[in-house]
From TrEMBL:
<dbReference type="Pfam" id="PF01266">
    <property type="entry name" value="DAO"/>
</dbReference>
<dbReference type="InterPro" id="IPR006076">
    <property type="entry name" value="FAD-dep_OxRdtase"/>
</dbReference>
<feature type="domain" description="BFD-like [2Fe-2S]-binding">
    <location>
        <begin position="403"/>
        <end position="455"/>
    </location>
</feature>
<feature type="domain" description="FAD dependent oxidoreductase">
    <location>
        <begin position="8"/>
        <end position="356"/>
    </location>
</feature>
<dbReference type="Pfam" id="PF04324">
    <property type="entry name" value="Fer2_BFD"/>
</dbReference>
<protein>
    <submittedName>
        <fullName>Putative MG039-like protein</fullName>
    </submittedName>
</protein>
<dbReference type="InterPro" id="IPR052745">
    <property type="entry name" value="G3P_Oxidase/Oxidoreductase"/>
</dbReference>
<dbReference type="InterPro" id="IPR041854">
    <property type="entry name" value="BFD-like_2Fe2S-bd_dom_sf"/>
</dbReference>
<dbReference type="InterPro" id="IPR036188">
    <property type="entry name" value="FAD/NAD-bd_sf"/>
</dbReference>
<dbReference type="InterPro" id="IPR007419">
    <property type="entry name" value="BFD-like_2Fe2S-bd_dom"/>
</dbReference>
């Protein structure tokens, strides 16, 4: 027999979907392991998306994605309120710039109704400019989506992982799965840090989901890494974008949007470039040029503001038009693949659906009665009371009054807490995602030495 830790379920992939699945599974009487090849949770696709909590108004009606995004929106909205994940219900506005796009808007409203969302409204060009005055001239009309929201994707993934750990999940970072050894009752996952043995395996590996799927003997889909580059504008630009401005969607996706962020910035992007390299998150001169041209066409005044950062993320595009979630009882294996950018919004519903499919496939799920309360996450949203603004918190611990990162108003107490948290950062980038330290105008020029010194 192969030696190694033994679990009831091993979840491969500690992104927002994998962490949500581990959290859900650990609500049952199961020993759960959450594996990831990287050294932190949410290090892949989950850390670099547009961070929009979607209603699912424009999903393809009748698809699994449509159903799970709609359900996930409700579940995550409630969970965010309980745990303190920053969410702002800004609403969204689809803007038509051509007669063809204008003619498509009634169909999009009807599509939303078929998806169970009936709050969209057609608005005139005058109403478009009333809602977003800084838009470029030439808009012909729009479609409102009042319940679209912005969210902190970093805190969402971390909240799921933190609660999973409090429920008993074992987090195994730096465990890249290289091969699979099936047995009569268990499967051994061979990783670069030793074997992990589990009765059941859930594949939520994102960009690597097709590779893991092949280790289990399948050849049913291929992941194409789709790079999306984005520009982040300084907080002074925020009044220009009071809500999410969406283009009329195409077959390639939602296209380039302008969106406020929960950190007080404005985001422009993403691009959509299919690559072969599953690790290439570099930005490019071509991407920058493309985004600036789009920005100039959509909102010229935005380009007068300072760019705080540019970054790129990779989405797991597949050769299918829907989520691919399938359980195989004979292999004691479930695939959760092809989860596109809507996976953040659908994450809790995906986790619930995965458990349903596992139970149908033969995994006994006995609910636990001893679950701890959900965690209360550190507040890093700009629209909420931050530690440096709380007299009560500072009085209880002066470290919350000692600002280290002045651009983002991050305090010594917040950094200390992040380093001592159940899922601590593995380095500077992880600390950025937990506190916003070094994410501001100077990108760590002034505070970088002190922040990195606290990591030692």
């Amino acid at each position: 027999m192969t030696e190694g830790p033994s679990y009831d379920v091993a979840v491969i992939g500690a992104g927002v979907v994998g962490a949500a699945i581990a959290r859900e599974l650990s609500g049952y009487d199961l020993r759960v392991a959450l594996l990831d090849a990287r050294d932190d949770v949410g290090e892949g696709t989950s850390k670099a998306n547009t961070a929009i909590l979607h209603t699912g108004f424009d999903a393809s009606p009748g698809t699994l994605e449509s159903r799970l995004v709609r359900r996930g929106y409700a579940l995550l909205s409630a969970y965010a309120e309980t745990t303190g994940i920053p969410v702002e219900r800004t609403g969204a506005l689809l803007v038509a710039w051509t007669e063809e796009e204008l003619e498509a808007l009634p169909g999009l409203r009807e599509k939303a109704v078929r998806n169970g969302y009936s709050h969209c409204a057609l608005v005139s060009a005058a109403e478009v400019y009333e809602q977003v005055p800084a838009l470029a001239a030439g808009a012909l009309g729009g479609l409102t989506v009042p319940d679209e929201s912005i969210i902190c994707s970093w805190t969402t993934t971390l909240a799921y992982a933190t609660e999973a750990l409090s429920r008993g999940t074992v987090l195994l970072l730096g465990h890249r799965v290289s091969s699979v050894e099936p047995g009569p009752c268990t499967t051994t996952l061979h990783t670069d840090r030793g074997p992990v043995v589990a009765r059941w395996v859930v594949n939520a590996a994102g960009l690597g989901a097709d590779l893991v799927d092949r280790l289990f003997g399948f050849d049913r889909f291929t992941v194409t890494p789709r790079r999306g580059e984005l520009l982040v504008y300084d907080k002074f630009a925020r009044p220009l974008a009071p809500r999410i401005v969406l283009p009329v969607p195409s077959s390639r996706g939602k296209g380039v949007l302008i969106s406020p962020t929960v950190y007080g910035n404005v985001m422009l992007g993403p691009t959509a470039e299919d690559l072969s390299d599953r690790t290439d998150t570099s930005t490019s001169a071509a991407g920058l040029e493309f985004l600036l041209a789009k920005g100039a066409a959509l909102m010229p005044r935005l380009l007068e503001e300072d760019v705080t950062a540019s970054y790129a993320g990779l989405r797991a595009a597949i050769d299918r038009s829907d989520y691919l979630i399938s359980a195989d009882g004979s292999r004691r294996y479930l695939l959760a693949g092809g989860i596109r950018s809507t996976g953040l919004s659908a994450s809790m519903a995906i986790a619930s659906y995965v458990c349903e499919q596992l139970m149908v496939a033969g995994l006994a799920l006995v609910p636990r009665s001893d679950l701890p309360s959900p965690p209360r996450m550190p507040q890093i949203g700009e629209a909420f009371v931050r530690p440096y603004q709380s007299d009560e918190l500072i009085a209880s611990d002066p470290a919350y009054g000692r600002v280290v990162c002045f651009c983002e108003k991050v305090t010594e107490g917040e950094i200390r807490d992040a380093l001592a948290s159940p899922v601590p950062p593995a380095g500077v980038d992880g600390l950025r995602r937990r506190t916003r330290a070094m994410n501001g105008r100077c990108q760590g020029f002034y505070c970088g030495a002190k922040v990195q010194g606290m990591l030692l």
